[in-house]
């Protein structure tokens, strides 16, 4: 497909790619860096908790800025704060574990600012004629970065024997964030669009037909798994191998499988099969955890990673589509796109925090391998809950505005 004539679309794609690259280089190994200073699951969980609290609050508070003010400045500030985060990591070094809460809040704020502004600008700079082109390149670049970025980082950390390698990848991320800020100044200022509604989420919960209640409930269930799995799997791989290179290899393999499975799902997975596909995907994502009951090693973790990568599109694509389809069902929803993006993210945040609280509560008493595995199984059931909430919405066709 030919590239669009609008240079702004290409620039936004480049900004997205650079932001994702900077995060991929360091993000996978950030929790492992903390873990090497202090082997404490609860510390990593609290760091993730701080991120989620800041992420949700930033989406909600910055929504007014993005809708009524200069959304491009929100985008730039998010990128700049990400670079500042890695500057603090470099400055504190191994003592960073003593600043888990402020660092988590800082990272969550940066991600909230960037992704809220990016999602809104994406809707504004693309249209029916170039949106497929844009989405295709976002997916391709994201997949390639996800495959190569962590692998390169793991190789560099191993080559430079630990601390020097970590400082190198953190510095690389900081520099890329700085370059991304500069590139973002070539993006034009966007027009404002109406007044921001602070309580849109409460209004949606009170709607008579309950459609958004079910959608939000499904998003909460989706978040329960994400909150813990987002960091725990990589920690388990490192604990089982004690090699950053193995973590990079794990990411390379699972991301490559994910690239193929998402491509196949995009080609053959039709909207009519969303409900059945989500249920099948959710069940298989749970079943691939079972080998960890036998033994937690690189092989069983790879079974979990590859199995999840193969079948997560069946679950994730319908889960994403439901909320975004609802945003486009009528003119009012389209005009409330900022608020509804916020509602979606806060619903996910509530689920992630709930999952983290369960994880923290249980591991405050026991941290043996069997307990961790059983927790993975319990939290891994939440995608089935997503299907329970969303199945009726998926079976009814949502008209496009």
Automatic annotation (TrEMBL):
Localization terms from the record: Cell membrane
TM region positions: 9-35, 41-62, 74-93, 99-122, 134-156, 168-187, 223-241, 247-264, 276-294, 300-320, 341-364, 370-390
GO molecular function annotation: transmembrane transporter activity
Keywords: Membrane, Transmembrane, Transmembrane helix
InterPro entries: MFS, MFS_trans_sf, Sugar_transport-like
Domain of life from the UniProt record: Bacteria
Membrane topology: Multi-pass membrane protein
Pfam families: MFS_1
GO cellular component: plasma membrane
Protein name: MFS transporter, YQGE family, putative transporter
Species of origin: Paenibacillus uliginis N3/975
